[in-house]
Write a structure and sequence with these properties.
The complex is a heterodimer.
Chain A: E1 6-15, E2 18-28, E3 33-37, H1 44-51, E4 57-63, H2 69-72, E5 76-79, H3 93-98, H4 113-125, H5 141-155, E6 159-162, H6 171-186, E7 190-195, H7 198-204, E8 207-212, E9 214-220, H8 221-226, H9 229-234, H10 239-253
Parallel strand pairs in A: 3-7, 3-8, 5-6, 6-7
Antiparallel strand pairs in A: 1-2, 1-4, 8-9
Helix pairs in contact in A: 4-5
Chain B: H1 3-20, H2 24-52, H3 56-65, H4 67-77, H5 82-106, H6 111-134, H7 139-145, H8 150-153, H9 161-180, H10 182-190, H11 192-197, H12 202-243, H13 247-272, H14 276-294, H15 300-330, E1 336-338, H16 339-346, H17 350-358, E2 366-369, E3 372-375, H18 377-400, H19 408-415, H20 421-430, H21 453-461
Antiparallel strand pairs in B: 1-3, 2-3
Helix pairs in contact in B: 1-2, 1-13, 2-9, 2-12, 2-13, 3-5, 3-6, 3-12, 4-5, 4-6, 5-6, 5-12, 9-12, 12-13, 12-14, 13-14, 15-16, 15-18, 15-21, 16-17, 18-19, 18-20
The chains are: A alpha/beta, B mainly alpha.
């Protein structure tokens, strides 16, 4: 069997010396939509950022198709949270989507006609082509999320890590996004999606990754839903973990 | 023309002729103008990224922090050698940047405080060194060092060819880097996380920007002074930011503004003295203020006019809608409504209604004539559409948003002025072509559609509902 698109091995990540993710071991199969589910502060975004090399790992490793990120950068696309950017930035919808092509261009190279065509097609796919000349501040939350998705599509990657793509969007946009994810899946792509709504999670995702500081469960949605794992994810039982993390921080920073 | 005006005209003519003229005096003016333009241009272009990255204070800090480097360069070289002074300044700038970072990473002191600390400490050391070098304690140096305080405020009259060469290099390097690395800088400034995931690390972009910034500041301070150099990194880019919606246009706009301010500042200084740096900053601010007030998109005046227009439209449309309701209730003629009936419908005194109705003058919809409001066909149609939109919206709120009947009026009162014909048609379709609104009032078909049943029928049910509208 070929190497999985994404594999975490004994991953531990800390913020300010305080571990927020402990010993994550999981291998994501190809061609599925995985929902990352867990309460606030469970480390869902941290997991994605650690995978993308945006955070330093305290221990463990992340591999993409058996290789480090550096070797497979073009095959992996990242969709940050919408709140992470300044939407007053002087940039049009079209230019933002074109940014998805930047990873395919060398230093000093500018996007060419083919790149523009791909960006345009991505905009069509998310139903935002009519807005291409708009400055991005003049868009609703759902539209902003859709052009983030278009940028990801323009990246033409095989694996996507998406941080809360459903946050702050209306029901119609949510359906549109789900449809786009499904069409991406039929094209053989793999997606990891941070999500906060348990109700819809069951409907949207093929696999669930239940996270609360540590990996609670990973498996096909029906199976994960069947057992009493959700209670375990959202319920307590974490006080020991938190207390240990706190103790590590205190002793490393010298602050009580 | 007053004597002062004549003086200004003469000096301006002198200034202009020296730009093309020959001789040492003309050459000095030319150097000053060229220096001012190059420095302003380089600062304005780079400033776009500085402000978008929210690093404006960084420029201020670096401007102040290079001063001890100038003094140190002088001490090492033993004379005012331009390369030595610039090298000293460059080193001081980079040290200051490192010092700031050190404070941030090794303590809980936040970025802005760290910048403030670095700025003041480095500046203090710089001023101290300059006072020492030019003061009575070092008579051997003071004559040679006498020009150094120029760096505090800048003075283009002492711009030499070497300075111009450095300035030209700086401007060219900035332009080349900004054009060549446009996509990398853009990605990093807009979305650093995303940029990092496609292989453009933030630290790499930060370092490049920092090096360029230090270089540009260092070569510009002799013209602009250590204090005012930061203004050129912020004001033209901020002006351009108000005017443009794409980074490329913002940079071009900022460059043009910067260069123009450079020329005008040099002229202003020549005519009125006051120094080139302060003159450039004043011109740049005047431009910013003009754009802030009169900019077509975000300008204060434009916004005010927009609001006034909207308020006027609302008043006018409300009168037209009232006129429609009068006609609906009384079966009065559509093109001429008694102001007394209108006032009664609106629950106002006739005088108040008359004043509001007069505001329709100048519109294609209606005008007051004697005691009557005379409506054009277009005015009747508009009034009908407002009522139509209002009632459909009320029904929509009641059905789709499950609002109580007594809650829907206020929302509809505002929205009615913003509903396009298409939206109204869509609403109607969505609600299944309803005939009555939540208050039992008929929803009219648009005038001219041939369907006037609602209006005719309503003449009979007039005033049935206590809550009109």
């Amino acid at each position: 069997m070929s190497a999985p698109p994404l594999e975490f091995h004994d991953l531990t990540v800390s913020y300010n010396q305080k571990p927020v993710l402990w010993n994550i071991d999981v291998a994501i199969p190809e061609g599925v939509i995985v929902g990352i589910i867990g309460p606030n502060g469970a480390g869902k975004s941290t997991l994605l950022k650690a995978a993308m090399g945006l955070l330093r790992l305290s221990s463990g490793w992340v591999r993409f198709w058996g290789e480090p990120l550096e070797a497979r950068r073009r095959s992996v696309g990242f969709v940050p949270q919408r709140e992470e950017v300044d939407w007053d930035f002087p940039i049009t919808v079209e230019d933002l989507v074109l940014m998805g092509r930047y990873g395919h261009l060398g230093l000093l190279r500018r996007p060419g006609r083919e790149d523009r065509r791909i960006a345009e097609a991505a905009l069509e796919q998310v139903g935002m082509a009519a807005f291409r000349k708009r400055q991005i501040a003049n868009l609703s939350g759902g539209q902003q999320q859709r052009i983030f998705l278009a940028r990801a599509l323009a990246q033409d990657s095989r694996l996507y890590l998406m941080d809360e793509p459903f946050a702050g969007v209306d029901a119609t946009t949510e359906k549109t996004i789900v449809a786009i994810l499904e069409s991406m899946r039929s094209a053989g792509r793999t997606m990891l999606v941070v999500h906060h709504d348990l109700q819809t999670a069951r409907e949207y995702f093929d696999y669930l990754l239940l996270l609360n500081r540590r990996l609670v469960a990973f498996g096909p949605t029906d199976k994960v839903y069947g057992e009493d794992l959700l209670g375990k994810t959202y319920g307590g039982h974490l006080t020991v973990l938190s207390r240990a993390a706190e103790a590590i921080r205190a002793s490393k920073t010298g602050k009580p | 023309m007053s004597a002062d005006d004549a003086g200004v005209a003469i000096l301006t003519r002198e200034f202009l002729s020296s730009l093309a003229g020959e001789g040492d005096a003309a050459g000095a003016i030319r150097s000053a103008v060229l220096g001012a333009v190059l420095a302003s241009l380089a600062c304005s272009v780079l400033g776009c990224f500085v402000t978008l990255r929210k690093m404006a204070l960084y420029g201020d800090m670096l401007g102040h922090a290079v001063l001890p480097g100038v003094a140190a360069g002088f001490i090492v070289a033993g004379r005012k050698s331009t390369p030595a002074l610039l090298l000293g300044a460059l080193v001081a700038g980079l040290l200051a940047a490192g010092f700031t970072r050190l404070i941030c990473t090794r303590s809980r002191i936040k970025n802005d405080a760290a910048l403030g600390i670095t700025l003041s400490v480095f500046y203090a050391i710089g001023v101290w060194l300059l006072s020492y070098l030019t003061g009575p304690s070092r008579p051997d140096l003071s004559s040679e060092a006498s020009g150094l305080p120029l760096y505090l405020f800048g003075n283009p009259s002492v711009i030499h060819d070497a300075d111009l060469a450095f300035l030209t290099t700086a401007a060219l390097v900035v332009l080349l880097v900004v054009v060549g690395l446009f996509k990398e800088f853009q990605a990093c400034a807009f979305d650093p996380s995303f940029a990092a995931t496609i292989g453009i690390p933030k630290r790499w972009a930060d370092t490049t920007l920092l090096l360029l910034l230090t270089f540009v500041i260092v070569v510009s301070i002799k013209i602009l002074g250590v204090i005012l150099v930061a203004a050129l990194l912020v004001i033209p880019p901020a002006t351009a930011y108000l005017l443009t919606e794409r980074l490329r246009s913002m940079i071009i706009c900022s460059a043009v503004l910067g260069a123009t301010c450079g020329v005008l500042g040099a002229w202003l200084d020549y005519v009125f003295d006051g120094g080139v740096g302060p003159s450039i900053v004043c011109v740049a601010f005047a431009v910013l203020l003009t754009v802030f007030l009169f900019g077509t998109r975000h300008g204060v005046v434009a916004t005010w006019v927009r609001h006034r227009r909207l308020a006027l439209r609302t008043v006018r449309e409300n009168i037209l809608a009232s006129a429609y309701r009068v006609r609906e209730r009384t079966g009065a003629a559509a093109d001429s409504i008694d102001l007394a009936l209108l006032a009664q419908e609106r629950g106002e005194e006739v005088r108040a209604t008359r004043a509001l109705a007069r505001r329709l003058h100048g519109s294609p919809w209606a005008r007051v004539s004697g005691d009557r409001l005379e409506l054009t066909e277009e005015g009747q149609r508009r009034g009908c559409n407002i009522v139509r939109g209002h009632r459909l919206w009320e029904l929509f709120l009641q059905r789709e948003a499950s609002l109580a009947v007594d809650h829907v009026h206020a929302g509809a009162e505002e929205v009615e002025h913003f509903l396009s014909d298409e939206t109204i048609a869509e609403l109607e379709h969505l609600l299944g072509r309803p005939r009555l609104d939540p208050h039992g009032q008929p929803i009219p078909a648009p005038i001219g559609s041939g369907d006037t049943s609602a209006l005719e029928k309503d003449a009979t049910t007039a005033g049935r509902d206590g809550e009109r509208r």
